[in-house]
User: What shape does this take?
Amino acid sequence: MAHVVTSPCFGCKYTDCVTVCPTDCFREGEQMLYIDPEPCIDCGMCVAECPVEAIFYEKDVPAEWKDFIALNAEMAPKCPPIVTQKAPLAAPPGSV
Ligand code: SF4
Ligand code: SF4
Assistant: This one.
């Protein structure tokens, strides 16, 4: 089991979550972050940091976002680690 980043993260401007992870699980995709399930110890620290409630324990991911469990596992190894808060991610199309 691991924690999973889901749909509300898309286009997030505040990477608050990465600063609290004790095992540096977060990976930076082009428009959202992913959690690498391997190092995640399910401490839950990141959940409270996310202002849009995008992070869930794997078992608690809402039904409509279950695909994000596999997406995080698939994308995390392909994306660079992110451990410090940084400038806005790319805005979703049509949002500016
Ligand atoms: S705080 Fe982290 S998980 Fe939440 S939306 Fe922003 S980048 Fe995504
Ligand atoms: S649950 Fe804990 S270990 Fe897992 S990604 Fe969140 S902060 Fe990191």
Q: What stands out?
A: The longest strand covers residues 3-5. Helices lie at 45-49, 67-75. The chain has a mean pLDDT of 92. The chain has one domain: 3-78.
